[in-house]
């Protein structure tokens, strides 16, 4: 069963570039468990519903929450790992045009507004190559064309992969203790660093401070818990080490541009819409 599953993966990945001029469409409605490292000549728009998808490139792990999309430029090696089989992934692969907007050359994660959501839901029944001159090609091209105009904030939902094993050990410790309050000076002491040398190691290896890394990791964990819908916002704040709900809410807002409660409400709206779509199609 597993081998056949990977054959299907490979089949559609190989098909992406077979017609250089088409826009290729692939929707995975069941959430495959893992798509191994690969790359394609076409750029990819990967939109997720239902749960979190981890996208790993050579240097970073991107954390793609439901109702967001990631833009992966042409030629970037990446693997895709949905967190659960609740994930629905919608993929559009676009040929690279001459003199494209700079937007298309950068990896990035963006929230999906109502306009883009409706356009993505419209692609529900498409599959395979959309060829130039067809109505679907025109609609898909419009989806691509609108992105630089509506996607103005590239969300910092990625964490760099550490190269130094000493730092990797510290990051694993942080991962396992997100519910505790972790202080930089305590970490330095515990792992045998002076604060100054650990600060330097963070900056050199992952290009951000301990506090930046720790804050993003806590918010990413909070998104997972919000999507699980088992805990209240207060309980989620505690699970990721915040004793104050307003502080948690403000931090979440700084990174995602919306409050945890808004994030939950919009997720509910999407579920209702997706159910209606399923009934009407």
UniProtKB/TrEMBL annotation:
<dbReference type="InterPro" id="IPR011051">
    <property type="entry name" value="RmlC_Cupin_sf"/>
</dbReference>
<dbReference type="InterPro" id="IPR020449">
    <property type="entry name" value="Tscrpt_reg_AraC-type_HTH"/>
</dbReference>
<dbReference type="Pfam" id="PF12833">
    <property type="entry name" value="HTH_18"/>
</dbReference>
<keyword id="KW-0804">Transcription</keyword>
<dbReference type="InterPro" id="IPR014710">
    <property type="entry name" value="RmlC-like_jellyroll"/>
</dbReference>
<dbReference type="GO" id="GO:0043565">
    <property type="term" value="F:sequence-specific DNA binding"/>
</dbReference>
<keyword id="KW-0805">Transcription regulation</keyword>
<dbReference type="InterPro" id="IPR018060">
    <property type="entry name" value="HTH_AraC"/>
</dbReference>
<dbReference type="GO" id="GO:0003700">
    <property type="term" value="F:DNA-binding transcription factor activity"/>
</dbReference>
<protein>
    <submittedName>
        <fullName>Helix-turn-helix domain-containing protein</fullName>
    </submittedName>
</protein>
<keyword id="KW-0238">DNA-binding</keyword>
<dbReference type="InterPro" id="IPR003313">
    <property type="entry name" value="AraC-bd"/>
</dbReference>
<dbReference type="Pfam" id="PF02311">
    <property type="entry name" value="AraC_binding"/>
</dbReference>
<dbReference type="InterPro" id="IPR009057">
    <property type="entry name" value="Homeodomain-like_sf"/>
</dbReference>
<feature type="domain" description="HTH araC/xylS-type">
    <location>
        <begin position="168"/>
        <end position="266"/>
    </location>
</feature>
């Amino acid at each position: 069963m597993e081998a056949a599953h990977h054959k299907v993966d490979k089949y559609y990945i190989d098909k992406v570039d077979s017609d250089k001029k088409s826009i290729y469409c692939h929707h995975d409605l069941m959430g495959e468990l893992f798509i191994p490292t690969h790359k394609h000549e076409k750029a990819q728009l990967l939109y997720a519903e239902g749960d979190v998808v981890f996208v790993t490139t050579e240097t970073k792990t991107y954390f793609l929450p439901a109702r967001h999309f990631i833009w992966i430029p042409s030629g970037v090696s990446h693997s895709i790992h949905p967190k659960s089989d609740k994930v629905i992934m919608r993929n559009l692969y676009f040929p690279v045009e001459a003199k494209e907007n700079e937007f298309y050359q950068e990896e990035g994660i963006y929230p999906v507004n109502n306009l883009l959501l409706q356009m993505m839901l419209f692609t529900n029944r498409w599959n395979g190559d959309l060829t130039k001159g067809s109505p679907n090609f025109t609609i898909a091209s419009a989806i691509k064309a609108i992105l630089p105009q509506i996607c103005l904030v590239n969300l910092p939902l990625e964490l760099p992969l550490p190269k130094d094993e000493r730092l990797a050990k510290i990051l694993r410790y942080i991962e396992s203790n997100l519910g505790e309050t972790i202080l930089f000076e305590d970490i330095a002491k515990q792992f045998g660093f002076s604060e100054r040398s650990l600060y330097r190691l963070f900056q050199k290896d992952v290009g951000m401070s301990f506090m930046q890394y720790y804050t993003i990791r806590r918010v990413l964990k909070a998104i997972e818990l919000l999507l699980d819908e088992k805990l209240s916002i207060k309980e989620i704040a505690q699970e990721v080490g915040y004793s104050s709900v307003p502080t948690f809410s403000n931090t979440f807002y700084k990174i995602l541009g919306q409050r945890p409660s808004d994030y939950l409400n919009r997720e509910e709206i999407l579920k209702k819409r997706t159910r209606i779509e399923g009934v009407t199609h």
